[in-house]
């Protein structure tokens, strides 16, 4: 529509300019016509005056005029009768007395005061006088005079003719003027002696000052004058005859509205036509633009928005053509199709990746299960040997080594599963207000056997006041223990580890510093990435998978903190700094974790032990027998269910992965069996995922232990079950 408006703009300008030129042309043409009409009117009046002059010249040469008064009166009466437009003829003596008149005089008349009379004597020529109201005939007239001169050239008298102004006006009736026009004749004093229309109304009145000024200055030009009636007219002026004939002036005024009406009408019609053309063009542009452009652009916008919202099936639905919008629609549809293909490929790759991730998780869970199964009898056997041969130092030392190595392997398996859970966002924190000093003590205690084995010196610097933070005690202990464990791995025997906790601004800063092998700058930047390790010499027996520091970073960030690593260079040690937000609200500290309890104590229990791993069953059975409990063994779920009918167990230790049906189903059946419905059900499994734990607890288990079973934790559970039996 804007383009149409711009295209029509030059035509509109040309139309307006053409209208202005037409108006100017109309005014110019009217001026010329007006001058012609004014000249014609002046010529007609001059012709009337010339006729009167000829009559007076003829009268002045008649001898009877100066003779007997009766003959003179008869002569003038006869002339009056033969000439229309005149109201009187007469003879004026040099003293001004009228001695002869075509119209009988009722009383003596003296015209000595008339200017035309004195001028005729003085100038000895024809004089057209000014407007007068006849003293004898009582009409609006002009007096025309001519001197009577004898042969010696002496002025004897003056003959005059009184011309009726209405008669003067009849000589110009044949001039056609537009409505509202004014034609006026004025004498030398500016008094109106002829006017159209309404002559009777204006006889003897002066022209307006604007008209008189225009007559004095206009010359041959046309001037615009606003009349007394408020109408603006275009006036031209013309002199009536030569100066020797009269001093009269004729003016004709035509309303400018009449002059420009035709041009304005034409211009208005042109503008109306232009407006109609413009409106039709804009309407056509709007309709065509709306159909061909706006609606299609809206379709393109809607399609683009749907694509942006993820609807890759969206298409414009616009027919492709050679014009721009068709090409754009085609390009947009091609883009959507391409994105759809790429999205399909990405979705497929994502599904495959998820499937691979699921297989990886299942593999890790299975790997942990398969690793924990052999670790379980080893750990239990070591505890049993240590319990049965506590007086043999060599056996006790060997058992400690076995237990320590089993714990290390179990830690590796736990780290592997923890990293898998953390990276998938499956770790939930059990947050509470706690003292970081307690966390440091527990972590140092946990890592102390490894520090002792490598003869490291651990320096711990703690603030005197409590260091309150909000977090998960177990996970924060894991963070500090992993940092200390990492330092022990890469610090030679006899080295020094420094652990410092201090308040700094709104944070608590925990620093673990060692004088070990240090790190290159490239390693510092990626030390918290998965499976990243520094090179170690073969004599360093503490292995790892490069998971500890990755776990530290993830767990610290889950607590809203940050962790950084720094090292001056190889051989100059490393520093790890953890920042955790301080907790400044009212503090209610979590309870201190319970200490280790002895296996002995508590009433004997009837225990049903179910596992398809013979070595694990045998070692755990010996361990439970040593604690004074009665143990019945089954290697399948079906045998365990039948055995429970007769044994009526107090506690059931059930493996989950059984050959006939799994331990979860066995737990549900035992809960429905009257002989075992009140028993304490304990799950023992190599699967440590949270979803496995939730499934087992929903099946009816009271406790969930991950292999290798922590004998201290098992002893606590059995002691609690024995106490519950006593109360019943």
Automatic annotation (TrEMBL):
The keyword Oxidoreductase is annotated on this UniProt entry: no
Major site of localization recorded for this protein: membrane
Molecular function GO labels: ATP binding
UniProt-listed Enzyme Commission number(s): 2.7.13.3
Catalytic activity: ATP + protein L-histidine = ADP + protein N-phospho-L-histidine
Top enzyme category: transferase
Residue intervals of the Response regulatory domain: 606-722
SUPFAM superfamilies: ATPase domain of HSP90 chaperone/DNA topoisomerase II/histidine kinase, CheY-like, HAMP domain-like, Homodimeric domain of signal transducing histidine kinase
InterPro entries associated with the record: CheY-like_superfamily, HAMP_dom, HATPase_C_sf, HATPase_dom, His_kinase_dom, HisK_dim/P_dom, HisK_dim/P_sf, Sig_transdc_His_kin-like_C
4-aspartylphosphate modified-residue sites: 655
Domain HAMP: 291-344
Top-level taxon: Bacteria
Keywords carried by this UniProt record: ATP-binding, Coiled coil, Kinase, Nucleotide-binding, Phosphoprotein, Transferase
Keyword Nucleus appears in the UniProt entry: no
Coiled coil: 332-359
Localization of this protein: Membrane
Name of this protein: histidine kinase
């Amino acid at each position: 529509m804007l383009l149409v408006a711009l295209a029509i703009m030059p035509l509109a300008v040309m139309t307006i300019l053409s209208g202005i030129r037409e108006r100017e042309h109309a005014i110019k043409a009217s001026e010329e016509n007006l001058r012609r009409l004014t000249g014609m009117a002046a010529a007609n009046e001059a012709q009337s005056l010339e006729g009167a002059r000829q009559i007076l010249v003829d009268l002045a040469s008649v001898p009877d005029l100066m003779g007997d008064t009766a003959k003179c009166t008869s002569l003038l009466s006869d002339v009056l009768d033969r000439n229309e437009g005149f109201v009187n003829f007469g003879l004026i003596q040099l003293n001004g007395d009228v001695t002869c008149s075509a119209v009988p005089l009722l009383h003596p008349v003296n015209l000595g005061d008339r200017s035309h009379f004195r001028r005729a004597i003085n100038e000895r020529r024809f004089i057209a006088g000014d407007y007068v109201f006849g003293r004898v005939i009582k009409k609006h007239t002009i007096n025309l005079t001519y001197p009577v001169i004898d042969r010696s050239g002496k002025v004897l008298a003056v003959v005059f003719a009184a011309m009726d102004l209405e008669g003067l006006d009849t000589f110009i009736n044949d001039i056609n003027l537009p409505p509202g026009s004014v034609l006026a004749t004025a004498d030398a004093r500016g008094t109106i002696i002829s006017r159209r229309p309404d002559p009777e109304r204006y006889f003897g009145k002066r022209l307006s000052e604007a008209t008189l000024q225009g007559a004095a200055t206009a010359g041959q030009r046309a001037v615009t004058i606003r009349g007394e009636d408020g109408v603006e007219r275009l006036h031209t002026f013309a002199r009536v005859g030569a100066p020797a004939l009269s001093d009269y002036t004729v003016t004709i005024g035509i309303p400018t509205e009449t002059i420009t009406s035709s041009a304005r009408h034409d211009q208005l019609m042109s503008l109306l036509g232009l407006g109609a053309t413009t409106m039709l063009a804009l309407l056509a542009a709007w309709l065509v633009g709306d159909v061909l452009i706006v609606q299609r652009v809206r379709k393109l916008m809607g399609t683009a928005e749907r694509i942006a919202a993820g609807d890759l099936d969206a298409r414009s639905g616009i027919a492709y053509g050679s014009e721009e919008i068709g090409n754009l629609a085609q390009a947009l549809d091609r883009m959507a199709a391409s994105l759809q293909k790429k999205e399909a490929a990405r979705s497929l790759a994502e599904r495959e990746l998820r499937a691979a991730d699921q297989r990886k998780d299942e593999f890790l869970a299975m790997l942990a299960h398969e690793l924990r199964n052999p670790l379980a009898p080893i750990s239990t056997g070591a505890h049993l040997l240590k319990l049965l041969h506590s007086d043999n130092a060599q056996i006790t030392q060997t058992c400690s080594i076995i237990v320590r190595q089993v714990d290390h392997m179990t830690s590796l398996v736990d780290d592997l599963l923890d990293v898998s859970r953390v990276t998938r966002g499956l770790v939930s924190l059990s947050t509470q207000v706690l003292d970081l000093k307690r966390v440091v003590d527990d972590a140092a205690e946990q890592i102390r056997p490894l520090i002792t084995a490598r003869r490291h010196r651990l320096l711990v610097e703690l603030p005197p006041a409590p260091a309150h933070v909000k977090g998960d005690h177990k996970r924060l202990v894991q963070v500090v223990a992993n940092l200390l464990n990492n330092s022990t791995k890469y610090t030679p025997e006899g080295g020094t580890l420094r652990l410092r906790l201090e308040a700094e601004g709104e944070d608590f800063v925990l620093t673990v510093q060692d004088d070990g092998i240090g790190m290159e700058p490239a390693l510092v930047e990626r030390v918290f990435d998965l499976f990243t390790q520094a090179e170690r010499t073969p004599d360093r027996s503490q292995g790892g998978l490069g998971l500890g520091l990755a776990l530290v970073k993830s767990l610290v960030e889950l607590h809203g903190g940050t962790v950084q690593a720094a090292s001056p260079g190889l051989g100059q040690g490393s520093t790890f700094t953890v920042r955790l937000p301080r907790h400044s609200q009212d503090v209610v500290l979590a309870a201190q974790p319970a200490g280790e309890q002895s296996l002995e104590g508590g009433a004997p229990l009837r225990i049903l032990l179910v596992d398809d791993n013979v070595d694990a069953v045998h070692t755990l059975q010996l361990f439970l027998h040593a604690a004074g409990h009665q143990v019945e063994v089954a290697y399948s779920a079906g045998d365990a269910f039948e055995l429970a009918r007769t044994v009526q167990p107090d506690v059931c230790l059930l493996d989950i992965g059984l050959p006939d049906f799994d331990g979860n189903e066995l737990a549900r059946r035992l809960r429905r069996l009257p002989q075992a419905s009140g028993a304490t059900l304990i799950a023992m499994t190599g699967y440590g995922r949270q979803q496995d734990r939730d499934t087992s607890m929903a099946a009816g288990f009271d406790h969930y232990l991950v292999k290798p079973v922590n004998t201290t934790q098992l002893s606590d559970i059995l002691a609690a079950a024995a106490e519950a039996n006593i109360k019943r």
